[in-house]
Design goal:
Layout: H1 5-14, E1 27-28, H2 31-38, E2 47-51, H3 57-64, E3 68-73, H4 76-85, E4 91-95, E5 111-115, H5 121-131, E6 135-141, H6 142-145, H7 159-167, E7 168-176, E8 181-182, E9 189-196, H8 205-215, H9 223-226, H10 233-239, H11 253-263
Parallel strand pairs: 2-3, 2-5, 3-4, 5-6
Antiparallel strand pairs: 1-8, 6-9, 7-9
Length: 266
């Protein structure tokens, strides 16, 4: 079992590997938590994009579940280790930056999975939303997980919250304490399942993310001031019964979508 403290510490010592703080390397050694995450969606015969396989703890369980795994690992040392130590006919390793990788090889119904590094969680979530997977199985910092459930004007309510809630139904699978990692982080993590809605918007998530970010460009400013360069904005706000003084963070995901559609109507 790769997701165990004994395995991780043994490999780190044998391979003379020090976890890279800049890459947010905290290896999960709670196999039960990872198994709960893997069990949250049917994976047999599915293609899974794994972000940051590390030492292969989650990868092993994804393969056991019958998935075809494409794993992107930025750390050359870890990628080389996995190539030697974990050969599998349903596993393809890609050494590189997940934010700069071309994912044109993925089928439309792929699943995204990963123990996401805390330092770039927002960037990765934005990238994954833009790729529009059929589902996601994520281990993230609890504060990041809260975005999938955040309501308007709450602390964690922003572009990721707005767009993810339009396209996905989120379920909290469980929480993972710092002691379940080597080395232990300073925060609690959460396991989150996201399933694509049966009736998601036809607009591209990438376009909606960009628009949501514009609505919140300056959170203290009004929505009108943030979008003042958009033709017809004042009339659209009046049609939607929104005050010119409303802030972007007060809009529901559905209102953001409607505003986007009205401002971009032919």
């Amino acid at each position: 079992m790769r997701a165990s403290k004994a395995f991780v510490e043994q490999v780190l010592a044998r391979e003379e590997l020090l976890p890279n703080k800049n890459l947010g390397q905290n290896f999960c050694v709670d196999s039960a938590a990872l198994q709960r995450l893997v069990d949250a969606l049917p994976l047999a015969g599915r293609t899974v994009l794994e972000i940051g396989p590390g030492l292969g703890g989650l990868t092993e369980l994804l393969l056991e579940a019958g998935a075809r795994v494409w794993a992107v690992e930025k750390d050359r040392r870890l990628c080389a280790f996995l190539e030697r130590d974990m050969p599998h006919d349903r596993l393809t390793l890609i050494q590189g930056d997940c934010l700069k990788t071309d994912y044109g090889f993925l089928p439309p119904d792929f699943i995204a999975a990963g123990n996401l590094p805390y330092c770039i969680t927002t960037d990765i979530l934005t990238m994954l939303l833009s790729l529009s997977p059929a589902g996601m199985l994520l281990m993230v910092q609890k504060e990041a997980a809260d975005r999938f459930f955040a309501k308007p004007s709450e602390k964690n309510y922003g572009p990721v919250a707005m767009v993810s809630q339009l396209f996905y139904r989120a379920t909290l699978v469980g929480e993972v304490p710092p002691g379940a990692y080597v080395p232990p982080p300073t925060v609690t993590s959460a396991l989150v399942k996201l399933e694509k809605r049966t009736d998601p918007p036809q607009e591209s998530p990438q376009s909606l993310l960009k628009f949501a970010a514009a609505c919140l460009r300056m959170r203290r400013k009004t929505l009108y001031n943030n979008l003042t360069d958009r033709p017809g904005l004042k009339e659209v706000l009046r049609e939607m019964n929104l005050s010119p003084g409303v802030r972007g963070e007060a809009l529901t995901p559905e209102q953001v979508l409607e505003l986007y559609r009205r401002l971009n109507a032919e």
